[in-house]
Amino acid sequence: MTNYIIRRLIMMIPVFILCSMIIFLILHLVPGNPVDNLLRPGSPPEVRGRLIKEFGLDKPIYQQYIIWLTNVFKGNLGVSITEQRSVSELLLLKLPSTLVLGVVSFLISFILGVLLGAVSAIKQNTIVDYMGMILALLGVTVPTFWLGLMFMLIFSVNLGWFPISGYGDLKSLILPAFTLGLAGAGLIARVTRASMLEIAQKDYITIVRAKGISNSQVIIKHIFRNALIPIITLLGLRLGWIIGGAVTIEIVFNRPGLGRLLTDSLFRRDYPVIQGVLLLLIFTVMLGNLIADVLYAYADPRIRYN
Amino acid sequence: MKKLTIYLLLAALLIALTGTFSLASPEKELVFVVDPAGKGTATLNPLKINWGTSALYALYDNLIEVGLDGKYYPALASSWEMSEDTLTWIFYLKEGVKFHDGSEFNADIVKWFIEEMRKSPSDYMVQSIKSVTAEDHYTVTFHMEYPDPNLLYNLSSVFMKIPSKEAIEKYGDDFGIKYAVGTGPFMFDKWIMDDRVILKKNPDFKWGTELSENKGPAKIDRLVIREMAEEVTVFMELKSGGVDITEGVPDIYLEKIKEDKNIDVVEIPGSRLYYLAMNTQIEPYTDIKVRKAICLAINQEEIVEHVFMNVGKPAHTYLVDQLEESKVPEEYKISFNLDKAKELMAEAGWKDTDGDGILEKDGDKFVANLWIENTSVFRKVAEVVQEQLHKLGVDAKITQYDSITFSDKLKKGEQELLIRLYGWDNADILEWYFNSERMGYPNVAMWKDEKSDELMDKAMTKAATWEERVKYFTDYHEYLLAQFPWAPIYLPPVNFGIRKEVIMPPVINSKRLTGPPILDIDIE
Amino acid sequence: MKFKSHEEKQYIPRNKSRIMFLKFKKNKMAIIGLIIILILIFTGIFADFIAPHSYREQNLSLKNQSPSSDFLLGTDEFGRCIFSRIVYGARISLKVGILSTGISVLIGIIIGSMSAYYGGFLDQILVVLMDVMWAFPTILLSLLIVAIIGASLNSVIIAIALSYWVQYARLIRGQILSLKNELYIEVTRSLGANDSTILWKHLLPNAVIPVVVAATLGMGSAIVLEATLSFLGMGAQPPTPSWGSMLSNARTYLFLAPWLAIFPGIATIITVLGFNLLGDGLRDIMDIKMKE
């Protein structure tokens, strides 16, 4: 297993470099120059050229890329053009907020999704099942940002239970976390239900039942445990999705975080920051995939990686 | 293993949560929200800033302050004089001024500061200063390269706030990020990026300006300056009392806020102007009649009433209205007159021959691309302008860009019509937008005209005194207005939403509440 | 946890399409989905007759009115009828859904089938490419693409197509790989059929059903993505009545005129629900296993 993980980690390097190349190219294709954000009335026309030189933006793109990549391998992600801080410092500043949002909404997705899915599967083809699945379908259908707006309208504007925005305390976390969590819960509920029903049809379950074990024992010990495998895989795959989803949620709820940092920097063409955030995101996604595979193997003894 | 995973997740959650603890509230705390439309704080080091932010006004002082009346008042310089030939300025400094770190403010600091300015992004502001000599401990002389009537304006700007030399040398790159040391009424405490800057009272402060009643230490103990990205958030927080003062009350909520007994709205003149520009280098906007017709088709009053809910004023010139240079004779002012506009279009050969409401000339329809930045306010203004132009018979198609793509597009000079906004309170903005050396961006109208450049050069470099400068800039402004490269649209004020608990001074003398007025502000 | 009836299974080889039709008729959810989509298409085509008002004409004195008999769903900040704008918006959503999904399926088919059929080095490169694209969250990728080519409805369609093709490519690749070594393909090849004949006549048609199902579901996601991009100000340009841009405008008015945010959102949800129900139904009917 350790060998497998090490091999996978090494395999990540070329994909990572390729990703960074694509990001770099795409970014420099986006029209606009970050230094334009630094100019203001009163400054003479030649200031612009001086700034471009200062940030090394006058060099050919491949040179800029090589300089940047070498620095990345030295652990230096560069300095923000508009914020006057190093990119790693910015990332560290913004990470906690996104991490909290991500982890909490992840837990909400998992708990609600598995509960809803399991109940629906157990009560298959009853009214409970239908209601549950309609809820789950809504979860995957409703645009996250709209759900956020509606929550704000109901719970902040009309009921006044939660602050409309902000960051720092538990209260301001609840609405964004639920918004993001509910969208994921729908998907997880559907997968849970489907995989539980599938396993229930398997021969070994029939055998277990034939042994006279009680129905609840069968469901919990045999069906549910085995049905967890695809759910765990899904959770791993959703790591990156959560951060992508956080972009819109952070904008709707005005939370400082990686998502806001990314979009703000994109609008300012702050290349080093965008590259830093995107690399971090891609790294998270790849790590999520790896974790999913490892957990999958751990949960299902039949799978062995060599 | 499964338990371990859960523990790990919980641990991560706890660590993350403790990093975001809420802040305990102290004795007298004032929470001030900056305008969501403004740019956030990037650094608190005035020598590195590219734009001004509210916290800087409370942390640092200038040699000179500018009042809301446009006049200059003594600040760290208690008085100053200019020589006959305008090439020497002497500044007498206030005595007993100390930075927050205890170091002394004196003539050597000013000399050092002007040299540091030469390395800053705002170096051009001290270009006209050849050298600075410290005559004695509290007297400095500026020897000028050439006459610069704008010197006082520059010295009073946020870009020339004076930081502590000792602190800058001690902290290096951390200055402005982890530390900020000035002479202002508030001292740096904490900065949570994109969220808030927390400042605490400077108990030793006693050098307030004439612009505030109170010259001594501030009445409030803590000043929290918050940044919020959304207007709706600002509104909700003000209503619920989560914040005390908001800068820039969202126009659409103004009525609701005025109804609220717990909130006062204070309005002071702003320094921003919305305008529609035409690319004067391409057909049909090369024709002054077409330009004039478009200018006259813009109904500024309608926009002020419906988009901005009657807050602020319609703009009829290219400068904000508190500037002396904006006071031009009536005939130069650009105002709505649809009939005249239609007449001009007909004279220029544009007629609606097929009766579809859109003008034609030589078989071509008058279709115009209208570019704007992708914010909701611009979209609202543009959609109304689109309808107003439709009434003239111009089919305007709106395209939105983010601000940087926008300036990049402008540099290529392919624009036709565009709506933008600027915020600047000096007439030299005309040079920025109409200098033929800045074609495309910022000269968005692609304005190239010999006479205009001549007048510009005169206004920028030939004036020796402030009065002369005003005269030359007014001439330049009048000439531009008569050429119709822009249609002025709207002058937004700066609104402050203020909770009843806040005790405001009877008069506000400065554009920045966190500047001199902060000394007089108290809280119940 | 019932067993499938034996009769049903016996019929399948004889008359596949008839069985599917019968199954479809039994699947209520799928029928509801289909009806929603048909209504959407009808609304889109006959928008000019359905909408009581113009979608662009402003009436500033009637701005932000709550729903009434004159304006069924109220008016927006320019006094435009929200109901009419939603009706016209159906066109935009359909256009986005069909075009972007069409393009991405096409790209997916080309890359996926090339990758699977030719294998070897080409396959390896394409797989790495797909992995890389897969690693980008779609919303961010499309945001970047719109930033490059400029915000407009067409750029949004292109951006969505370029962000979603990977899922179809992977699907096609998987399908073809599993079919490639089946007996009848071997036989066809030994009978002298060339590569393109095998690919186009035998492999792709067999891979098409899962793609149709995925594309139906994909149209729903494409419409949501369009709404999200427009919401972030990177979508259709005014006065285009895209539901997403209506929502984007509505955000500022959430407190004053909540109907601005509620109705376009509901329209989006119903539409996406339609595509999801139909897609789910089709999947159950065709008995296809797909990863969510």
From TrEMBL, chain A:
UniProt protein name: Glutathione ABC transporter permease GsiC
Gene3D superfamilies for this protein: MetI-like (1.10.3720.10)
PANTHER family named among the record's database cross-references: DIPEPTIDE TRANSPORT SYSTEM PERMEASE PROTEIN DPPB-RELATED
Membrane topology: Multi-pass membrane protein
GO biological process, one term: transmembrane transport
Species: Candidatus Sediminicultor quintus
Family according to the record: Belongs to the binding-protein-dependent transport system permease family.
Subcellular location, record wording: Cell membrane
Spans through the membrane: 9-30, 99-122, 134-161, 173-192, 227-253, 273-299
Keyword annotations: Cell membrane, Membrane, Transmembrane, Transmembrane helix, Transport
Domain (ABC transmembrane type-1) ranges: 95-292
SUPFAM superfamilies linked: MetI-like
GO cellular component: plasma membrane
InterPro entries linked: BPD_transp_1_N, MetI-like, MetI-like_sf
